[in-house]
Design brief:
The protein is mostly helical. The protein is 69% helix and 0% strand. Helix 1 packs across helix 2 (46-53). The longest helix is centred in the middle third of the chain and has 26 residues, at 67-92.
Length: 206
Amino acid sequence: MGVKVYLPLGRVGETGGAVAVSTSREAVLAAARRTAMARGYNGLNFRDIAAEVGIKAPSIHHHFATKADLGAAVARRYWEDTVAQLDAIEDEASDPLAALRRYPEIFRASLSNDNRICLSSFMAAEYDDLPDPVKAEVQCFAEVNVAWLGKLLVDAKVVEAGEGEARAKAIYAAVAGAQLFARGRSDIALFDTMIASYRTVGLLPA
């Protein structure tokens, strides 16, 4: 699949009620995202999220009827935000190769935030327990990363056309694995060391 364009979800409207509803929904999504990055899908709990947001637990059901609905929305927003980050990296970089060099930043940012892990990596580890809508969004995260990497690898002439996807999958798996390894040691420097080793052996562009 191609890289999708992320359009931020704004407030519902100009009236006070609509803005309040949108703001409440965004607060729930933000709290659920923090929880999922620390404890995964199985760690999502309406009561705890409501307490963090400052609302009553039944109020969450006005926005998300079930835990599966909430989990799918969180996972979708996560990959949408990642697409926006990747697009920003590409726009800011001087050329495709420079953009590829910055790719590990996406995963390093999670570690620098209280040793959290990529939400989609965490949920992927829970795959058998995930409802189908959540599985679909988790798969989208990997797909948009691979699509972005594959395109830039070809544009940067790191690989030939037709070889981008396989190399992109290897890079995605390696960087996500480095993040997981570093999180298990609570050592972000270990992530940096592993990324440097990937560059040395030629997996990542130097």
